[in-house]
Amino acid sequence: MNQSSTYVSNQQKLQQLMQQAEIANFEELSQVSGVSQWQLNRLLTGLLPKLSIIDILKLSKVLNISLEGLLLEFETAQPLREDWKITNQENFGDVNTDTESLQKEYKQLQQKLDQQQETSHKEFQSASIAALESWLLQWPTAAIIAKKKS
Questions:
Q1: Nearest CA to 70 among 92, 49, 86?
Q2: pLDDT tens, residue by residue, 3-43
């Protein structure tokens, strides 16, 4: 596929995605997504690997398509498409495992934070009571001295 046919093909794909997302033209897509028209032109000319992952994520969000879907839609190398699917399937289990371990760690940290808050609250109460107790014990003496001075 030569450069011009790649451009035309990618332009049609992008226009179809824009139509589904109710985006009128490339200028609006650029404004809504925050991706420069220069980067959009790179996408159209088949230079998807030259775009930053942040720009690709922005486009996938605005166009209401998954990151994988956008990459597969505009990637022209067939072997990469197959590798992406295999890698994605292999890593899916790892993502679930990572998510579970992160949730477990989050719960542990939340419990630790709750314990620290309770400990801090008790320490504050103890310190406040000690200060008040000391003040209350000294009050009668201070009152007598104040009376004598007035």
A1: 49
A2: 578 889 899 999 999 999 999 999 999 999 999 999 999 89
Q: Residue 47 — φ and ψ, nearest 5°? A: -100, 40
Q: Tell me the Ramachandran region of residue 9: left when phi exceeds 0, alpha when psi lies from -120 to 50, beta otherwise.
A: alpha
pTM across the whole model: 0.50
Q: Does domain 3-76 have CATH number 1.10.260?
A: yes
In the block, tokens 């320490």 appear at: 123
d(CA 80, CA 51): 16
User: How far is residue 48's CA from residue 59's CA, in Å, rounded to a whole number?
Assistant: 12
Domain extents in the chain: 3-76
